[in-house]
């Protein structure tokens, strides 16, 4: 059963996000961000009236069809609220789904797993280096960028929120591991192409020989900017949880 304070909890998260990201350069930002992180860590799937679901339920939510046939999207988004300073919603990933490597220009972000397991790879962009050149595989592709591959970790509902900032862990790839998964997502400020906050996708320009152990982390890598992958798109679903008023 949902907890008695479920409505007040998601409302408190939204209010704290508004306070935190209204002045991201202010002297109290660190303290406010920590408080928001604490509140977000308390949120569970039942607080938002969510439960893990299989392919049949996913197809029903999308209006019919079968997974991976072009009818049911691999990822869905439930919008909760948005202001000029932040947006909040829930992403639902089907089993085996992947949100490709992408960036969040000039944005802060917080991600809390609600159910399932996510593998999240985090990277930072690096300034251009005169002596560095991209690998030959990049010759016929899009723009290339140096990056620091910082981490690749598994997150579950028992994990603390995953954080990103304009300069740290700003690029990430999110994979659903061993079943469907969902996470509560806060971005501050929201994406807005008109203000230079468009989403860009990337491909990692490296590969290990078959059977070889992957290189250790952190390490420098090259990324190629790419169009959105043809097999990735995000659908929309109604948010079933407590109403948030700001």
TrEMBL record:
Gene3D superfamilies: Jelly Rolls
Keyword ATP-binding: no
Keyword terms of this UniProt record: Dioxygenase, Iron, Metal-binding, Oxidoreductase
SUPFAM superfamilies reported in the protein's UniProt record: RmlC-like cupins
The keyword Ribosomal protein appears for this protein: no
Superkingdom of source: Eukaryota
Pfam families, per the entry: PCO_ADO
GO molecular function list: dioxygenase activity; metal ion binding
CDD domains in the record: cupin_ADO
PANTHER family on file: 2-AMINOETHANETHIOL DIOXYGENASE
Protein name: 2-aminoethanethiol dioxygenase
Lineage of the organism: Eukaryota, Metazoa, Chordata, Craniata, Vertebrata
